[in-house]
């Protein structure tokens, strides 16, 4: 899918402000407007139409345009090499850039190293599952809905990450203490609403399939916590990367892997408390 407005929403950082900051280069359009000029430009330099009454583009704007072209080429290569934030790599100026011609071995290496890194990170969930073997054997419902839970967390976190990435790129959000606090407060409210809504839907889904209200409660509580944590993590990660001087666009895919591992831990911990400890307490009372 390609969103036409993303070319304006995500612009490259100015070279003098740090390559990984993700700050918008709106000065290009400002110079063009003040000079009474009209410029249409794609990131990879495929088209450039200029109209001027009696003046040419200022030298500073020419330099900015060259920076945009070089940035587009570099980002297109980065996306080809498998370091992908899918939303980011679908910018018109990048998606329209023909992939670089490379050998099979070079392409396999550039893509495989990222896949290997993600594979190793996601495999951390195996340690969590191993420590909860008894729970999984006794309560098969946890295994049946584990994919649903971690998938919901990854989706919710990615939505928040993309929102913050776009805000940082356009300059509407700043990686300052006040800006981070304001965004986190807003997304906390969003996360609570999303978590409650999805937890209610998850409870109905599990109960219809499984017929046990305690199992449905354990899964729905896990879903609520996973979604809430995902929204907060998806909001905070782009800010953290920006403050560290790393491209915030990397947060899009990173949050999904992080929440895969975190979601497994949250699910197992919550289900252990509800299905083992709480259920045992209810039996004693009854």
What does this structure look like?
The chain has 2 domains: 6-95, no CATH class; 125-285, Tetracycline Repressor, domain 2. The radius of gyration is 24 Å and the shape is elongated. The chain has 13 helices and 2 strands, in the order ααββααααααααααα. A two-stranded antiparallel sheet has the order 1-2. Residues 1-54 have low confidence and may be disordered. With 286 residues, the chain is mainly alpha-helical. The protein starts with 5 loop residues before the first helix and ends with a helix. The chain is 71% helix and 3% strand.
Task: Please describe the structure with a list of short key phrases separated by commas or semicolons.
286 residues; Tetracycline Repressor, domain 2; 2 domains; two-stranded antiparallel ribbon; 71% helix; 3% strand; SLC41_membr_dom_sf; transmembrane helix; transmembrane; membrane; SLC41_membr_dom
């Amino acid at each position: 899918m390609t969103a036409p407005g993303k070319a304006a929403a995500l612009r490259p950082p100015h070279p003098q402000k740090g390559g990984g900051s993700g700050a918008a280069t709106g000065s290009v359009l400002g110079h063009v407007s003040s000079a009474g000029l009209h410029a249409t430009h794609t990131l990879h330099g495929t088209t450039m139409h200029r109209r001027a009454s009696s003046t040419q583009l200022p030298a500073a704007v020419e330099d900015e345009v060259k920076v945009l072209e070089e940035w587009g080429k570099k980002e297109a290569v980065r996306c080809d090499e498998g370091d992908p934030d899918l939303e980011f790599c679908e910018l018109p100026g990048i998606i329209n850039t023909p992939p670089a011609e490379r050998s099979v071995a070079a392409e396999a290496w550039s893509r495989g190293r990222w896949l290997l890194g993600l594979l190793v990170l996601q495999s951390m969930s195996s340690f969590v599952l191993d420590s909860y073997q008894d729970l999984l054997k006794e309560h098969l419902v946890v295994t049946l809905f584990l994919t649903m839970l971690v998938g919901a967390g990854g989706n919710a976190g990615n939505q928040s990450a993309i929102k913050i990435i776009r805000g940082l790129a356009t300059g509407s959000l700043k990686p300052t203490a006040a800006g981070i606090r304001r965004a986190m407060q807003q997304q906390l409210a969003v996360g609570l609403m999303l978590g409650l809504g999805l937890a209610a839907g998850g409870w109905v889904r599990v109960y219809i399939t499984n017929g046990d209200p305690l199992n449905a409660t354990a899964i729905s509580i896990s879903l609520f916590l996973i979604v809430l944590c995902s929204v907060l993590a998806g909001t905070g990660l782009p800010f953290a990367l920006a403050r560290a001087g790393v491209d915030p666009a990397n947060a899009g895919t990173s949050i999904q892997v992080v929440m895969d591992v975190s979601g497994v831990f949250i699910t197992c911990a919550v289900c252990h408390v509800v299905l083992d400890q709480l259920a045992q307490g209810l039996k004693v009372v009854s």
